[in-house]
Amino acid sequence: MGQMSDGMGRRELVKRLGVGGIGLASTTILPMRPAQAASDNSSDATASSSVVSPETALERLLDGNQRFIKQKREYPHQTPKDWQALATAQHPFATLLTCADSRVPGEIIFDQGIGDLFDVRVAGNVVTPEVLGSLEYAAALLGTRLIMVVGHERCGAVTAAVQGEALPGHISTFVKAIKPALASLKTKSADVNQQIDQAVTANVQYQVEQLKQNSNVLAQLVLERKLKIVGGRYDLDTGAVTIVT
Ligand SMILES: [Zn+2]
């Protein structure tokens, strides 16, 4: 379990991760070197005014979703001034693990802007090693205090997992990552659409559990109350995100 002592500074964590940790330097999707990440945040992200409590971060997301539903969006942080201010450092307040589905774009459904959300998107919002590494990076190095896994109604990836048919190429990789979630369904509806709907929620809950169980970095931050991990379900018809775990 946790390798970090209580109250370990982010700088110390950066140092440890850089030495023997999750190998940020070698990843192709996150080319930033640990040393660079540290200097980008030399004012310490945890002390930044943009860093909020996990509860406030959740509130901010849900408020944004309400504005989206009511068509009262504010389109925050989308001017040249905003992106220029973020050109050398980022302090996103929340991290999303969302399905790659074209109908579930985080910044739109939560009415957020540039620099607000650290987005990880993959079909079926599944936790693979690369996804886990990205989420750890956001929480440990960028200081985001909330991770929300967002599944959605009528998800094609979940549908494929429920139907269990043979799929070409590498498509089965993410289906394989959803399958264990289906095992947790105690009562299966006779109606296949209902079954898929149940599986969407079960998959979100399962992926949240994967995050909690498979990452010492995240578990320690949760223990220190510096991170909250929740699961949401997005309704394609109403535009509403409901917290399911
Ligand atoms: Zn989907």
Write the layout of secondary structure elements.
Layout: H1 10-20, H2 34-40, H3 54-69, H4 80-85, E1 94-98, H5 106-109, E2 117-121, H6 129-141, E3 146-152, H7 156-163, H8 172-183, H9 192-214, H10 216-223, E4 228-234, E5 241-243
The structure holds zinc ion.
Offer a quick outline of the entry.
By secondary structure, the chain is α/β, with parallel strands linked by helices.
How would you explain this protein's 3D organization?
With 245 residues, this protein is of the alpha/beta class. The protein is 44% helix and 11% strand. The chain has helices at 10-20, 34-40, 54-69, 80-85, 106-109, 129-141, 156-163, 172-183, 192-214, 216-223; strands at 94-98, 117-121, 146-152, 228-234, 241-243. Strands 2-1-3-4-5 form a five-stranded mixed sheet, with helices on both faces. Helix 1 (10-20) packs antiparallel against helix 2, helix 7 packs across helix 8 (172-183) and helix 8 crosses helix 9 (192-214). The longest helix has 23 residues, at 192-214. The radius of gyration is 18 Å and the shape is globular. Residues 1-8 and 18-49 have low confidence and may be disordered. Zinc ion binds at residues 99, 101, 124, 152, 155-157.
Beta-strand proportion = 5-15%
C-alpha end-to-end distance: 23 Å
* Ligands, ions, cofactors: zinc ion
Instruction: Write down how many β-strands occur, each being a DSSP E stretch of 2 or more residues.
Output: 5
The main pleated sheet reads as: 5 strands, mixed
Low-confidence stretches: 1-8, 18-49
Radius of gyration: 18 Å
Overall geometric form: globular
Write the H/E string, N to C: HHHHEHEHEHHHHEE
Query: Helix content range of the residues, please?
Result: 40-55%
Strand order of the largest sheet: 2-1-3-4-5
Structural class per helix/strand content?
Answer: alpha/beta
Count of helical regions: 10
**Average of pLDDT:** 85
